[in-house]
UniProtKB/TrEMBL annotation:
Lineage: Bacteria, Bacillati, Bacillota, Bacilli, Bacillales
InterPro entries linked: RNApol_su_b/EpuA
Annotated stretches, region: Disordered: 1-60
Regions of compositional bias (Polar residues) in chain numbering: 25-36
Name of this protein: DNA-directed RNA polymerase subunit beta
Length: 119
């Protein structure tokens, strides 16, 4: 029974320390290239800074299709609809009453009287 692993020749793995050592050896003679890299990095940073400034200057005000004040009104309206639907479902389905009775003032007066215990 042969497996693919057994057929492969054993390769020498490079450890982390030997890898770092080999990188150090190649980087020792590259002091001139390091200076060029730092010069490129600073010029790159300057370019990025210039692009950010141009972006800030060219920025147009955002035109909202759905204004914030309208969003607030819509959210409040949806909350009121959800509250009303919840009252009707709770009173009509769970409480075995008629759903429209949940919206009558007499029903709420009766609930308030029960909570405050006034007769």
């Amino acid at each position: 029974m042969t497996t693919k692993q057994a057929e492969r020749p054993v390769e020498e793995k490079q450890t982390r320390n030997s890898h770092k050592d080999s990188q150090k050896k190649t980087n020792v003679g590259d002091s001139a290239s390091n200076e060029q890299d730092t010069a490129k990095k600073t010029s790159r940073n300057q370019q990025k800074q210039k692009q950010r400034e141009e972006k800030k200057n060219n920025k147009r005000p955002r035109l909202r299709v759905f204004p914030i004040w309208l969003r607030i009104i819509v959210v409040l309206l949806l909350c009121a609809i959800a509250l009303t639907a919840g009252l009707m479902i709770g009173y009509g389905v769970i409480g075995d009453g008629t759903p429209t009775d949940a919206l009558k003032k007499d029903t709420w007066q009766h609930i308030i009287d029960i909570v405050t215990k006034t007769e």
